[in-house]
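Deliverable D2.4 — example input (structure tokens):
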């Protein structure tokens, strides 16, 4: 059974969640990935949504973080203040999934503007809770499509900190979370497992090469000496996505 690029991202994100318990998640691809993990290899995962829902078990794909389907079978519903100040800042979130319009080599994200701040070409939604999540969650997985306009040498605006300028910059500024550990795209996977905390190419999709990935990244890529091909989605994983989670194909 063939998969789409979106399904490849969903499956890789789901697999990466194995072994984690509390996951801060939004809607769209991250939501499908978390629910795929919950319905396959990690039934113990607790899904936390920014609206104050803890332990969500949605019966259908939520349309937003305020969708009533998140509440009906949740472990608890609390205020956003409690969610951010107790759960998140208290170090109780194992992983958060974020995306953005731009990302740099150290995993810093821009979701604010494209172009000059005073005269932007595009004004984006902004941080929401992403900045606080990027600082406080124990680790961050990023999910975004691999495009040259997104993987940039320098952000137009730093909305959510990754590893800042690399090395120990997060620790020097007192950020409690470990920062980005994985970037999941439709064509490649990257980690930050080096002393500089610089994005490193670790896996490529079928049909891709190092050169084809480099062509859509604005800086000279680090390449893992153990670079490998991605493991394709299984039929079981695709059936859960198509028949249970995204039955209308909104995100495929």
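Example output (designed residues):
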């Amino acid at each position: 059974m063939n998969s789409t690029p979106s399904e490849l991202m969903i499956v890789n994100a789901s697999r990466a969640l194995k072994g984690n318990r509390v996951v801060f998640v939004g809607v769209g691809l991250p939501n499908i990935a978390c629910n795929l993990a919950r319905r396959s290899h990690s039934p113990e995962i607790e899904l936390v949504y920014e609206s104050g829902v803890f332990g969500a078990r949605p019966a259908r794909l939520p349309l937003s973080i305020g969708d009533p389907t998140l509440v009906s079978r949740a472990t608890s519903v609390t205020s956003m203040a409690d969610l951010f100040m107790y759960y998140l800042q208290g170090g109780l979130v194992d992983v958060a999934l974020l995306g953005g319009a731009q990302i740099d080599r150290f995993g810093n994200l821009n979701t604010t503007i494209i172009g000059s701040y005073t005269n932007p070409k595009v004004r984006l939604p902004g941080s929401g809770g992403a900045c606080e999540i990027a600082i406080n969650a124990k680790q961050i997985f990023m999910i975004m499509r691999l495009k040259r306009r997104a993987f940039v040498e320098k952000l137009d605006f730093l909305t959510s900190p990754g590893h800042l300028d690399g090395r120990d910059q997060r620790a020097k500024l007192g950020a409690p979370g470990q920062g980005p550990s994985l970037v999941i795209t439709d064509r490649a996977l990257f980690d930050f497992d080096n002393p500089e905390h610089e994005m490193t190419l670790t896996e490529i999709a079928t049909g891709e090469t190092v050169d084809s990935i480099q062509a859509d990244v604005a800086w000279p890529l680090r390449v893992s000496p153990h670079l490998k091909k991605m493991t394709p989605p299984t039929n079981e994983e695709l059936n859960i996505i198509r028949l249970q989670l995204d039955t209308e194909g909104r995100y495929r």
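Residues 5-16 form the longest helix (12 residues).
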